[in-house]
Amino acid sequence: MTTFSEQGFPDRVTIYEVGPRDGLQNEADLVPTQVKAELVRRLLDAGLPVVEATSFVHPRWVPQLADAAELLTALGRTDLPVLVPNERGLDRALELGCQHIAIFGSATESFAQRNLNRGLDEQFAMFEPVVSRARAAGLDVRAYVSMCFGDPWEGAVPVDQVVSVGRRLLDLGASQLSIGDTIGVGTTGHVRALIRAFGDAGVPASSLAMHFHDTYGQALANTHAALGEGITTFDASAGGLGGCPYAKSATGNLATEDLVWMLHGLGIETGVDLQRLVDTSVWLAGHLGRPSPSAVVRALGSSS
Q: pTM of the predicted model, to two decimals?
């Protein structure tokens, strides 16, 4: 691959891999725990620096992740991030010695009600003891903010509303905000405006990560715009798997392979072995019984 660097872009980017959690949570057929464990191992072996393993959500809401404790036990690692929805989820994470957790907030009232059974303001009362207890126990806490660009029930989401929610989560003690385009409606100008609005509110780009979905084919363009604003952490899902069980218009995440291809083409280091990553998604597609939606996996997968 020929590389062409762009002035003002970072030299290195951290890819926060969400495939095992966000990518698999919408799968109708249960994926065996041993397959999930092998997926995590393969992703780590491909050089991904952060792999979010699972979520301690109640099995009734996300049956696919009911084996969270079993998976982490099989992996024998405590350094992989896990999502916790509430204090009960935190209790389970603490019992297993987890070092990194994430909470999942909403930028809109409608999605907070559907996803958290809480109002937009009420969600912070639920998160406060989770974050304070986690921090007191020495854990790192990441905060996802969903519906930051658009909401299927409310339409466009005001930028200042997103910034307000993000600031409140940081004030609770989160170390990083993952800004989610949950239904994939964001565009480059909107991305730049939102990042700059966070900056104006005292939140630097170093405290933000971007979580794009490719519903409208804008994920890579939006990534490029975010790079120009100083963002150096991007969420992605191997093979482009994923969605949101509470928002049917949310299709697949940005494919990790597509992201790596673009970043490497820009001369930006990721530490990821692209072919090993492609091989992993081809392997996973075989278990899921369908081809990967990732363009790069389709292009390079024939050699796997």
A: 0.95
